[in-house]
Amino acid sequence: MISALGDLMLIGEWSEVAKQGRLPTVAADLLEILGSDIVFANLETTSIGSGDLTAKEPRIVAPAEVIASTLDTLGVNVVNLANNHAFDAQLAGFEETRRHLEKQRIIYFGAGRNAAEARAHRIVEIRGVRLGWLGYVAPDTRPSHEAGEGTCGVNLLEEARVREDVRRLRSTVHHLIVSLHWGIEYCHLPSPGQTKFARSLVDEGVSLVLGHHAHVVQGIEEYRNGVIVYNLGNLTTSDHYVDSRLTIRQTPRTCSSFVFQATLTTEEIASVGVVPVRDERGQLLVGDATAARYVERANRLLDAGVSTSRWKWRRLVEDVLFRTMRKLHPRVISSIRPRHLMKFFGNVRRALSGRGPVG
């Protein structure tokens, strides 16, 4: 069985939980349901490395020991590194993360020291079932490092390349799993382009599409012989600070996620299940009612259809308006600058046009 977790952001209280050795206690209920052959997560935290950080904010950086102990405690053995925070501590931080993953024998993909490494697939065989893994990050998530022939970075999501990789790998495995770091942040509905592309991957033979990056949950779709999980949400997260000022305040909807579980045989996806989880300031609440409501709501939105007009409206409400309302907290308002107001109005225009967010 595979258990897929949402984003792991191991900063703030979660860094302290790991340092103090409290994770087995605060995640006890979660650990009870993770008796899987494979536990997958999007590792959206990089090691501190030499301390040379990128200029972007916020940065998701933690001591290597925090990352290692968290993955070990949760039993995570497969991680996606194709995300927009993999190089927040430059190449040195990525290399430190990679060394610890290899020491723990954790399979990783989606980023590397060059394009060939970043694009490389992984194959895992469990109980005679061969699983192929591929990972990509959408360019509009604004990763700081994009892998090139001689440059380190993440594996970019370019549709033609993804299809090429899928066709090359599909016949060598029983199931192909594609991890996609994509979508509009804080929007519970995927875009029409996302649904079209995800379904096309299933048409090409992909069994599972596992999405992340939106920081809120999105719906799950059983399509033909595959399952598409558009966004798993944040398993662990924390308020973000820049220069000691609170800039991103987490809410119940950004602290809600789910564990997606699937049993795979050599022939089919035998069963699937979903377990809601909420991050309550350093405590993981399994089966939480609030998280369950967000998961149910996301599925209802998806089931109602993803037309261009519906998606534009959801994006305007959730990504732009709700996101701005979260900043009305007095401690966040103090960090607002004129450039943030310009970004807000730019995002309104782009939401109405259906384009991606302002960088």
Number of strands: 20
Question: Which spans have pLDDT < 50 for at least 5 consecutive residues?
Answer: none
Rg over CA atoms? 19 Å
Average of pLDDT: 91
Kindly state the percentage of residues in helix. Answer: 25-40%
* Shape descriptor: globular
Largest sheet: 8 strands, mixed
* Sheet/helix structural class: alpha/beta
Number of distinct helices: 12
Task: Compute the separation of the termini in Å.
Answer: 38 Å
Strand content: 25-35%
What brief labels describe this structure?
6-stranded mixed beta sheet; alpha/beta; 8-stranded mixed beta sheet; 26% strand; 359 residues; 12 helices; 20 strands
Question: Could you explain the architecture of this structure?
Answer:
It is a single chain. The protein has helices at 13-19, 23-26, 28-33, 64-74, 90-103, 115-119, 159-170, 192-203, 289-303, 308-325, 330-333, 338-353, and strands at 2-8, 38-43, 46-47, 61-62, 78-80, 107-109, 111-112, 122-126, 129-137, 153-154, 175-181, 208-212, 220-223, 226-229, 234-236, 240-242, 245-248, 256-264, 269-279, 284-286. The mean pLDDT is 91. Strands 1, 2, 5, 6, 15, 18, 19 and 20 form an 8-stranded mixed β-sheet that branches. Strands 8-9-11-12-14-13 form a 6-stranded mixed β-sheet. Strands 3-4 form a two-stranded parallel ribbon. α5 (90-103) links the parallel β5 and β6 (107-109). α1 crosses α4 (64-74) and α10 runs antiparallel to α12 (338-353). The chain is 35% helix and 26% strand. It has 359 residues and is an alpha/beta fold.
